[in-house]
Amino acid sequence: MSAESPGPSGRFHHWRLRFRAWRGTRPFWAGLLTLLGGLPIAYFPYANLTVGQLTIRMATTAGAGSLVIGVLLVVLGLTMWYQSAVKNFAGVAAIMLALVSLVVSNVGGFLLGFLPALIGGALSIAWAPGQPRPEPAAGPAPEKADPTAVPAPAAAGAGGDDDTNGRHRAG
């Protein structure tokens, strides 16, 4: 490997930058939290806890319902990643499923599934795509205003229709 070749670190850097660009165009953290919230909700109703020779089964009467809720939350998390156009629907559905899991699935997977799914749904609803940065104009730089200059006070009542100084106009 020569000093000029990018080597493995160059390839890693390239993939990291591509992942960062991909992650910035969709509600990544919302999808991740929703996906991770579905796993304990689906797992705990079927789990066995063994302490010595004592086996405790945490099965509930709604075990199948817990499995359906957990799988739907995982699917909604993936939907947030790959179909970001339906992020609002996926966020509302994730919040509703997280709330239903409190009743159906051992207090929402002992709150280990409820909280990430709820936060992920809220993040999905609140997410908005970023605005591209404007490129600087090719030409002379605009002149900067003097920061020490104080503007002259306006005459009383001389403000336009838009200048209400935070107050409502009568009439």
From TrEMBL:
<feature type="transmembrane region" description="Helical">
    <location>
        <begin position="58"/>
        <end position="78"/>
    </location>
</feature>
<keyword id="KW-1133">Transmembrane helix</keyword>
<feature type="region of interest" description="Disordered">
    <location>
        <begin position="132"/>
        <end position="171"/>
    </location>
</feature>
<keyword id="KW-0472">Membrane</keyword>
<dbReference type="InterPro" id="IPR046096">
    <property type="entry name" value="DUF6114"/>
</dbReference>
<dbReference type="Pfam" id="PF19609">
    <property type="entry name" value="DUF6114"/>
</dbReference>
<protein>
    <recommendedName>
        <fullName>Integral membrane protein</fullName>
    </recommendedName>
</protein>
<keyword id="KW-0812">Transmembrane</keyword>
<feature type="transmembrane region" description="Helical">
    <location>
        <begin position="28"/>
        <end position="46"/>
    </location>
</feature>
<feature type="compositionally biased region" description="Low complexity">
    <location>
        <begin position="140"/>
        <end position="156"/>
    </location>
</feature>
<feature type="transmembrane region" description="Helical">
    <location>
        <begin position="85"/>
        <end position="104"/>
    </location>
</feature>
